[in-house]
Amino acid sequence: MSIGASGVRAYQTALTTVSENIANTSTPGYTRRSTDVRELAAPSSFTNNRNIAAGNGIVATGITRAADQFRAADVRNASADLARSETGIDWLGRIQSALTGNQLGDRLTGFFTSVNTVAADPTATTPRIAMLEAATTVANAFTATGKALDNVAATLDGTADNATSTLDSLGAALAKVNDGLGRSAEGSSARANLLDQRDQLLEQMSAITDVNVTTDDVGRSAVRLGGASGPMFVGGTEAGNVTYVRSDSGAVSFAVHRAGNVAGFSPTGGALAGIADAAARVAGAREQINNMATDFASGVNAVQAQGRDLDGNPGAAMFAAGATPSDLTLTLSDPRGIAAAAVGGGPRDNGNLVNFATLRSSGGFEASTTALISDNATTLAARQQVADAQSAIRDGAVSARDSVSGVNLDSEAVDLMRFQQAYAASSRVIQVARETLQSILDIR
């Protein structure tokens, strides 16, 4: 009867575990579990007449998770690589929109085309007005493109701050899980739940930055950011905080503040690495737009200064820069002020306008704009191809992990039937034992 009762208890636990697996088939982060059972052997002094120890039944010794830490690490690494590429794709797309949204290249072409129209009839007012309008659109395009890139940079800062805040929250949660693992019983269902939470937190961290994870015998994880040589972020029950700083030149730095110490790290994976890449590209594009605006404005103003306007006066500056080099404004409002004539030429002279053609050729403004946009577009396309490959790699890593730790309903159905039969058989043992004992009592 005691042996039968032990079987009922053990297989009831096993059935509960299988039921839990089936119920959580679609639960993200859930790891398949199994019930460990072992024989309850009698002490060697209790033997039968053949000197063979009789058993005392079976006992459930605990819950085991079907986890593979190596495959879980592969998923984290693949997730970090993919997150970096996907983040880069997002920001490259935003940079592309900032560079193309204001049609800077078309506005530059329109300006130089308007110069040719003035050259055809230097004394006509309408072509001169059209040239000033074209100059205004160029100034507005430079200003708007610069501000669009500034907005991308500001949004990037906000995204980075949110990512570091999320990372801080995940680190604090992992520290609490570590604390719970240190106090949980070995083989308990509560411990299995904590280990599932631990693995989910680590995978979420890897999407933000590359993490190096070491696990002790209890299952508590120590996490370093930026590789094995990076600073400790979570150790035991203490977690740190991550900060983000971006300089005007686009250089990005990250640091971990923990236990009174501050240590910098350079992420090579995850969203933070993608953000660092994007910050450098935004700064590079901003610098090129600034340089182009400076060269264009100073070049046009220099050409103006070389000629004479309709009144025979030296040409006045056409553009002025504001707080940043790309913040151009049109300072010449009078169409007669366009210096079309060369020094010594009359009102119908257009000798100075050839210098605009020279400026167009030597400055290469339109070509530079096209090259800047094309380079960003090429990088974006290449990054998308890399992301496609990395997505396939991650899917493979997830499949490999889930083949070990995921719930297979067919296998669970087989176990359900097996444990149900064992439970029923153990119950039958108890019933037979009772009937036998009752028969013996009835004989007496």
Characterize the structure shown:
This protein has nine helices and eleven strands. With 444 residues, it is α+β, with helices and mostly antiparallel strands. A four-stranded antiparallel sheet has the order 3-4-5-6. Strands 7-8-9 form a three-stranded antiparallel sheet. It has a two-stranded antiparallel ribbon with strand order 1-2.
Main attributes of the structure:
444 residues; alpha+beta; three-stranded antiparallel sheet; 9 helices
Strand order of the largest sheet: 3-4-5-6
Q: Give the DSSP E fraction (strand runs of 2 or more residues).
A: 5-15%
Summarize the helix and strand pattern as letters.
HEEHHHHEEEEEEEHEEHHH
Query: Helical content, roughly?
Result: 55-70%
What would the principal axes of the Cα set say about the shape? rod-shaped
Number of helices: 9
Termini separation (Å)? 20 Å
Mean residue pLDDT? 92
Structural classification: alpha+beta
Largest sheet: 4 strands, antiparallel
**Quantity of strands, as a count:** 11
Radius of gyration from the alpha-carbon trace, in angstroms:
37 Å
Parts with pLDDT < 50 across at least 5 consecutive residues: none
Précis, in short:
By secondary structure, the chain is of the alpha+beta class. It contains 9 helices and 11 strands.
